[in-house]
Design goal:
328 residues; alpha/beta; Peroxisomal Thiolase, Chain A, domain 1; 2 domains; 5-stranded mixed β-sheet; 23% strand; binds oxa(dethia)-CoA
Length: 328
Amino acid sequence: MTKPIAAFAGLGACSPERILTNADFERMLDTSDTWIRERTGIRERHIAAPDQTTALMARDASLQAMAEAGIGPEAIDTIIVATATPDRLLPSVACDLQALLGARNATAFDITAACSGWVYGLVVGEAMIAAGKGERVLVLGAEKLSAITDYTDRSTAVLFGDGAGAALLSPANGDRGILSSYLKTDGTLAELLWRPGGGTVHPPSDEMIKDHSYYIKMAGREVFKNAVRSMADAATKALERAGLTGADVDLLVPHQANIRIIEATAEHAHIPMERVYVNVDRYGNTSSASIPIALDEARKCGRLEPGMIVLLVTFGAGFTWGSLVLRW
Ligand code: UT7
């Protein structure tokens, strides 16, 4: 089997304290707890406080990952933040995080791959380690989706939550670490899941506020079909590249968007649901933060043991999708 180049030296996660339940949505919108649970599997989601920025959630997750790795801020050489919800358009969340941590020796930059961002970030971090360009690479998935969610649109409002997850990657020392990965993009379908307003095509305007084009828009059913197809593709490809099959997987940690998509992905990969980590019920879809939050939680509740084969599978706006196999 492939020898890993990069391994996880630390993990961390941050979830805001405030919880928005399906009952809260029943009071706000024409929806029901039954519809939300049956169509998505979501019961509640965490929502950031007004002053709790994407960068602050990223900082809290990073400090845990650094403490586990036993390193201080000056040892970090690279900070990669995957986010679809930057605190402002310029400069990056990664720059704010570098300042918040006091990581004065680190190069910091954001990457944009929506829900797939953290898996993309891990692959970029691994490549930097392989090229000898980094040895202590902090990879974040951090999102304040509540800031770009239209709480008058029942088809999207009930889906999203806020949070952050962090991994500290360092050179592998033995057989534990990243064994294979697979990344894919199809930009022709961008308009099925997007934020049309606020960029250079439609700069901020009174019109944009009125027509809500600043918020996330999604053609749910079309996105659903693409997610099922793409996550199946991703699961197969990373396993093939590692020379493994679903039977070898001890834990599948998929992007947590919808329980029905998760079940379809597991079925395609021939992985029984007992070997799938699910927390979409308690977090909703936290985009790039969903897999690191789930991985961190899986570890804390004893579902991850050293040596286990773990498959990460993701899908998001773009469309972007991808997967990663690691020996934990
Ligand atoms: O993070 C990666 C990207 N995101 C995803 O992977 C999400 C993918 N999509 C989905 O998870 C699902 O498509 C949704 C959960 C968003 C929607 O579920 P669906 O089963 O595809 O429902 P639908 O969009 O086909 O809508 C069915 C009905 C519609 O009513 P009519 O036209 O049949 O009368 C909607 O208006 O459900 C209605 N509906 C709702 N009803 C109650 C939509 N949202 C709600 C709601 N409460 N919150």
